[in-house]
Amino acid sequence: MPNPELCQTPGARPVRSAAPERGTPGARQAIALGALMLGAIGIGSAGIFVRLSETGPVATAFWRGALALPLLGLWASIDARRGKVHGSDADRSRRFDVRLLWAGVFFAGDLALWHWSLLETSVAASTLEANLAPIAVTLIAWVLWRERPSRGFLAALACAVAGVMLIMSPELGREATAAASAIPRGIAGHRSLGDLLGLATAWFYAGYLIVIARLRASRSAGNVMFWVTLAFTVLLLPLALTERFLPHSLTGWSYLIGLALAAQFFGQGLIVYALAHLPATFGSVGLYVQPIAAAVYAWLLLGERLTLAQVAGAVVVLGAIALARRAQARRPGRSALALHTPN
After folding, report:
1. Is residue 115 classed exposed, middle or buried when 0-12, 13-18 and 19+ CB atoms within 10 A define those classes?
2. What backbone torsions phi and psi does residue 331 show, to the nearest 5 degrees?
3. Which of 19, 36, 63, 336 could form a disulfide with 286 if both were Cys (CB 3.0 to 4.6 A apart)?
4. Residues 6+ apart with CB under 8 A from 161
């Protein structure tokens, strides 16, 4: 049964902003969209750092949160001092909200299941399946809040998925060729488990995005980032301790610090900021910038060649985001996941 507080729409509990809103709604959404895309570019670097990391995959996810916590704590403290709190008063942001734990559980599940799926199926298949999260967000909003997506939005979503498939097509092709020539018997069941884990990753990330969108109605971005990061870091620690936990060189530590700064502090921080101003359904489509960024990082840092199909896929994804924004702007009324708060 869904938590009633998690599923509550804005109409059920009015939220009073503690700071005056600045600019037109269109201008605020444009800024938020820019922040969302920059955040997606930031988290697009995560795969590079995970690949270079000297620790186990779940341990790497643990350090991603643990090393970001000091800066996130400073951010939350600054937000609290400045009074940039969206709830009825500053005291509300200091009280524990069970949705913070839910968000931490969803994000911990997202990271743990994705890393597990990478061991059970191909990297390309796992990443493609994890990037189905926007479809899950749309379905959840449709079922729980009766937010039926428009045809234009569904077309944009389909185009975005097609674009991601084009971006990943070279890797999918290489892995299919290798599979045909060198896969031992019994691997089909092995891959099926990995594919299921990849699909589960998408649902966990969708849950994370929706809960974050709800939290941002009453809490500042810094406050949400600190408590959610603390929650998922603590949840991942027991699993992390079963792997290689510490890097064995300063270079290894630098990779973990880079992951914490680029993917968690800047990447997720900008996404959490943006979700106060954008519907989670549209915001999740905007995150398809991430695989574009990942392909560019792999080209620049790992020497992986960019193909014409990948460039075409990037163009399709960017066009799909523009189409989704246009379709969202044409929808009358207010989304249960569109939060109109200024911070």
Report:
1. buried
2. -75, 125
3. 36
4. 131, 132, 135
Nearest Cα residue to 64 out of 182, 322, 227, 236: 236
Of the candidates 102, 116, 103, which has an alpha carbon nearest to the alpha carbon of residue 200?
Answer: 116
Other C-beta atoms lying within 10 Å of the C-beta of residue 205: 26
Helices (H) and strands (E) in the chain, counts: 16, 0
- Mean pLDDT for the stretch of residues 163-190: 64
| Residue with token string 């959610």 | 228
Model confidence over 222-254: pLDDT tens digits? 999 999 999 999 999 999 999 999 999 999 999
pTM assigned to the model: 0.80
Each domain of the chain, given as residue ranges in start order, spans: 38-179+186-330
Q: Which of 138, 284, 129, 131 is nearest to 199 (CA)?
A: 129
What dihedral angle (degrees, nearest 10) is formed by the CA atoms of 248, 250, 251, 254?
A: 120
d(CA 178, CA 181): 5
Place of tokens 């066009």: 319
Token digits of residue 197: 């884990």
